[in-house]
Design brief:
By secondary structure, this protein is an all-alpha fold. The protein has helices at 3-15, 27-55, 61-80, 87-101, 109-137.
Amino acid sequence: NSAGPLAGIIYVVDRGSIPRGAVTIPFEALVLSALGIALGILIWGYSVVETIGEKITTLTIETAFIAQFSGSISTLIVTRMGLPVSTTVAIVGAITGVGLARGIRNVNFKTLFKIISMWFLGFPVVAGLTALILYIVLPV
């Protein structure tokens, strides 16, 4: 979800800077974020749901509910502590916990390794791409 960063960009373009404290998210940022999320779901949704919901461990209706509930509670606690949190990390951790609770053999560590690897690889790739785009758009 990129509503926050997009809101910051739109705010700076419109007003020149971002003040300290609460900032109202521009409507355009919300619309663009919603469209981006919808497009992402349409293009990659099935693959993501299949990987998260079936390839880490097998879920039943009950275990899926418990994983979702646990991920939500974890996200709420960490957010209340004032720390940044990824809901994706929370749900992947919760689903892994479901598998571990049923026995270590119930967790597909190959799939889990791929997911975690992409988190670590994604960060420098996105940082580098962002720096490159910024350098092209706003030469320093």
